[in-house]
Amino acid sequence: MAFNYKDINEYLRIMIRPTSLKNTLFFFTTLLVFTCLFESCASEKDHVEDGNTTHEQSEEPKIITFSFLTTDNNSLTSNIAATLDEETKTIYVELDPLVLNIDQLIPTVTLSSGSTVSPISKSEQDFSHEVTYTVTAENGTTTVYKVVPSIIGNICTSNLVDSGPIVVSTNNQRIENLYIRTTDQHGIEINNHTGVVISNCIIEYTGAYMGIKFTSADNLTIKNCYIKYTNAPSSGPLADSERNCIEGIGSQNIVIANVKLEDGSTGIRLNQCDDSVLRYIEGHNMRGPFPRGQLVQYDKCAGGLLENFSVINDRDVAWTEDNISIYKSGGQQIKKGLIVGNNSPTGVGVLFEDQNTEGARGGYGGLVEDVDFLEMGNGVVSSVEGSKNVSFTRIRAKQIICGDLGQNRGKSTSNSLIFGAFGTTANTGGNSINDCIVYNSCNPTNIVWPEHNFDVIDYRTDIDFEPRNPIVLNFNCD
User: Fold this and answer.
1) 157-460 maps to which CATH number?
2) Domain-by-domain residue ranges, the chain?
C-alpha cells in the first residue's frame, strides 16, 4: 500500500480533536504510524499510476561492449572491438585464424549496471563457432546474446595481379597476391621443392587439370586462397575424376588454411601425405565422378587434422561419393565440422576404410568429433573393412534421406544407416559412439549395425538441434 501527503492531511483533519489526553495520545500514535509508513514506502520509490502501484525495476540486462584486448591475449597486436546489434541480440566480430589462436581467446564484456554474465568476462572461450552469453539483472531477468565470429582472410581482389599458371622452380618460393587463370595446365605445380608458400591467391582452372598439384613438397603452406573449377556443367559430374582443386602426393607437414574450394572433382586429395593440418576449409559442390566426390580424401596417409570445416553440396548439382574419405589411412582427427548433402547410393559422411590392407599407413583408429550431418543418404559415419578403434564423439545427424537421392542416382544401398562398422571380425572393432544425437531419422530401426563392433553405444533420438554454422570465408578487404 502507498501513501502520500494528501492522504495524511485528510486523515488528520478528521481525526485531530485533542479534547482529552486519550485523543492526544491517539493523535501522536497515528501520526507516528503514518510517518513510518510514508518514509518506508518512499524509500522503496513507490509511485501510483492509474490507480495501480508499481515498483521501479533494476536496469535491463545488457551487454554494452564486447572486445578482445591485447592485455589479455598475447597474440593480439591491437584491440578488437565487436559490433553489437541490440535489436537482434547479436554480436559480430572478425577474426583471422592465421594470426590468432581463436580457439583460446579471452573477451572483455562490459554490462549494464548491476548485471552479471555467463560465461564471465575475461574467461577463455573457443570462438571458432558461435558462442552464447546470458546476461542476468539483479531482479533475475535475463537476456541472451550470441557472438557470431566471421573468419577473415587477406585477399583484396582489386590488388591481385593477373597471372597465368605457375611452375615452382626453387625451394621456399612464395606465390602471393595473384589471380591465376588457366585452361591448359595446372594452376600451380610443385615438384621436389620444399617450404613453398602460396598465399592470397584466386585460382580458376578448367580442363583435365588441377588447381594446385604438388609432389614431394614437404612443409608446403597454402593459405587465404579461393580455388574454383570453371566451366563445370550446371549439374552432375565432371568429365573425369582428375580435376581436383588441390592434390598432393608424398609430401609431409602440409598446412592448408583459410581455403575455399568449389566444383572440383574433390576438394583436397592427399596421397601419402603424413601429419597434414587442414583448418578453415569451405567447400561447395564436389563434382566427382567416382572414385572422387569428397571434400577431403586421405589415401595411405599417417595422421592428419581436419578442423573447422564445412561442405555444402546441393544434391541437384553436386556428384558426391564419401564426403570425407579416410582410405588405407589411420590416426586422422576430423573435428568441428558441418557436412550437408550426399547423393551417392554408396557414399557416407565420414568413412574409415581398409586400415589393415596392403599399403595401409598410420595403423588403426581415428576420431570424428563435433561434426554435424544433414541430408545424408547411404550413411553418416563408418569404420569398415578392417578399420577399427574409431571414436565417433558428439556426432549429430538429422534430415536423413530414405528416398531418391537426386539426379536419378537411386536410393541408399544401406537403407540409410547412421553408424556402420561391418567387414571386421565380430567383437574386434573397438569402435565407440559417444554422446551422439540422431534426430527424426527416416529409418529409426537402422541406427547402428552391427552392434558387436562397437564397444560403446551412446546416442539419443529424442532431441532436436540447431546445426553448426558453415564456414564462410570473407576474402574482401580494403
Assistant:
1) 2.160.20
2) 5-54, 63-151, 157-460
Q: φ and ψ at 309, to 5 degrees?
A: -150, 160
* Cβ–Cβ under 8 Å, residues 281 and 309: yes
What's phi and psi for 388, nearest 5 deg? -165, 175
Task: Give pLDDT tens digits for 28-43.
Answer: 444 444 444 444 444 4
Any bridge partners for residue 93, and if so which? 149
**Alpha helices (runs of H) in 185-304, residue ranges in sequence order:** none
CATH for 63-151 is 2.60.40.2340
Which residues is 433 bridged to in the sheet? 392, 457
pLDDT tens track for 413-456: 999 999 999 999 999 999 999 999 999 999 999 999 999 999 99
Contact 227, 261 (CB under 8 A): yes
285 φψ region: left (φ > 0), alpha (ψ -120 to 50), beta (else): left
CA pair distance 182, 167, nearest whole angstrom? 12
Amino acid type, 339: I
163: helix, strand or coil: strand
Instruction: Report the alpha-carbon distance of residue 286 to residue 339 in Å, rounded.
Output: 12
Q: How far is CA 28 from CA 18, 83, 184, 366, in A?
A: 10, 61, 106, 86
How many C-beta neighbours within 10 Å does residue 172 have?
11
Query: Whole-angstrom Cα distance, residue 405 to residue 388?
Result: 29
Instruction: Residue 254: name the closest of 267, 272, 237, 241 by CA.
Output: 272
- Backbone φ and ψ for 212, nearest 5 degrees, come out as -130, 130
Q: Can you read off the three cell numbers belonging to residue 353? A: 576404410
Q: What is the pairing mode between strands 174-182 and 197-205?
A: parallel
Kind plus residue range of the DSSP H or E element containing 37: helix 21-43
pLDDT in tens, 286-342: 999 999 999 999 999 999 999 999 999 999 999 999 999 999 999 999 999 999 999
More confident residue, 26 or 354: 354
